[in-house]
Amino acid sequence: MLILLNKPYGVLCQFTDREGRPTLADFVSQKGVYAGGRLDQDSEGLLLLTDDGALAHRITDPRHRQAKAYLVQVEGEADARALDALRSGVTLKDGPTLPAQVRALEGEPEWLWPRDPPVRFRKTVPTSWLEMRIREGRNRQVRRMTAAVGLPTLRLVRTRVGDHELGDLPPGHTRVVAPD
């Protein structure tokens, strides 16, 4: 079984929490599944869940270089220098990244749902939207990459993992699909 979840902002990528914070159990009714990969609490979008250990391994193991796509709202203006650095790969504390595919967008995508709570707004600080694709899965990698080029991430929405796309799945909803 493979389940696509549009993970809302503020939800932990686990099924229990001693502190009572929102978890996957609040959105996924199927038993015996676990997340193939993670999204941090501050990130939103596509999360794959499965009951197939081999499939989960293919999704999460960095050696398989499963492509992941993100919409990223960053603080500041994404200039050619920053975009070229992301396309070349940046050096993080845990070593250099593979090159990312990245392009600047003309504002927030129209189809994107509002975040609750909204991203902070500052009149004097512009924001930019990027579409990024990476083939690694390091902890908070996209956030660390954009910060390394001077563009701190404000909002991060994963839209694709491998061949699976978020599409029009609303936040907090799931869709069961046939595994690859």
Task: Report the biggest beta sheet as strand number plus sense, adding barrel if it closes.
Answer: 9 strands, mixed
β content, as a range?
A: 25-35%
| Helical amount | 10-25%
Low-confidence stretches at least 5 residues in length (pLDDT < 50)? none
> Helix count?
3
What is the approximate shape? globular
Structural class: alpha+beta
**Strand count:** 11
Describe the model.
The structure is a single chain. By secondary structure, this protein is α+β, with helices and mostly antiparallel strands. The protein has two domains: 79 residues, Alpha-Beta Plaits, CATH 3.30.70; 95 residues, Alpha-L RNA-binding motif (Alpha-Beta Plaits, 2-Layer Sandwich). It is built from three helices and eleven strands; from the N terminus they run E-E-E-H-E-H-E-E-E-E-H-E-E-E. Strands 1, 2, 3, 4, 7, 8, 9, 10 and 11 form a nine-stranded mixed beta sheet that branches. A two-stranded antiparallel sheet has the order 5-6. The chain is globular, with a radius of gyration of 16 Å. 28% of the residues are buried.
